[in-house]
Amino acid sequence: xxxxxxxxxxxHVGKTTCTLGLVSAFQHxxxxxxxxxxxxxxxxxxxxxxxxxxxxxxxxxxxxxxxPKLHSPVILGAGATTRFLDHPHEFNMQExxxxxxxxxxxxxDIVIFEGTGHPGVGSVAGISNAHVxxxxxxxxxxxxxGGIGSTIDMLNMNLSLFREEGVHILGIxxxxxxxxxxxxxxxxxxxxxxxxxxxxxxxxxxxxxxxxPVMRTVADSVAGLTTHNPEKLDNxxxxxxxxxxxxTPELKSFENILLVAAVRQLEPALDKINSxxxxxxxxxxxxxxxxxxxxxxxxxxxxxxxxxxxxxxxRTELDTYSSVLQISKIEVKINxxxxxxxxxxxxxxxxxxxxxxxxxxxxxx
Length: 365
Prior knowledge:
Blueprint: E1 2-8, H1 15-28, E2 33-36, E3 39-40, E4 43-46, E5 49-52, H2 53-62, H3 68-71, E6 74-75, H4 80-86, H5 93-105, E7 110-114, H6 129-135, E8 140-145, H7 149-164, E9 169-177, H8 182-193, E10 200-205, H9 215-221, E11 225-228, E12 239-242, E13 257-262, H10 263-279, E14 287-293, H11 300-308, E15 313-315, H12 320-328, H13 339-352, H14 355-361
Parallel strand pairs: 1-7, 1-8, 2-7, 3-6, 8-9, 9-10, 12-13, 13-14, 14-15
Antiparallel strand pairs: 4-5, 11-15
């Protein structure tokens, strides 16, 4: 039995993306791969089961029936910390995690355990990432964001927690590296890592498409109500444009644009887009969605355009500036509503991670 524990130096560095790619790569190589999120923070109710949201994504990918005891044994939701501190004897989280690992061992050739947040998350309850890796007897792949000085600083701090628990480090994956800096980053990180016996398993270039949100996430960010074409909320957003600032250069990509406009700006904005469509001989609207601000009702001509092109429209009580600000703060996560991200994550791992080296260090080759 071979286990891997996927950890990350902090949130939003691409741990789930890398985990997806590794799971798919091992599966492609003919291994029976299992997945577990031993400690989750955000849960979903699916078929009357409460599981971590990432478990739902991997269930879709691997095709397993979700069993919370195996795939999502501990959820540290809101209030869990204080409940544990008040009544620690009521919790048996370490044993729940250990039993999940034992159960998965019997079912799979490889189990990939996905960590939560930074390595210290869960420490208050004795289930930090480092402690959990030790519980499930899994060596660690650490995912870090591309850089040199800051990356080494984060590695030095975070790896110390795993060293303290005596957990073996398989290596690191450096994610979101600016493409023309990959050789430089590899050279200097290796100077620090090689004396410590830690290899770089892969350097993954920054991929802009993985940073695109979908309209469903946009709606949540502005606390909006979807008034038209809710079935299109999985449209991806590659660019954002305010209704008062539309010009031909802004529409050069001419696809997947989010329009944020006040009611009074909507009709002239759509008229301008229509004119540019005619000049460019385009029949498909470049809009992936509209966020409408301000009071009043749109003109019927605007509604006709929205219906014709099946554009999801979201109304919000925020003004245009505040809406754009909130949308710009979206932390994009890979999920089951972004299948193109799942496909690209798998491709990136196959292209840029040394899977053979991982198998060698696990004693599989």
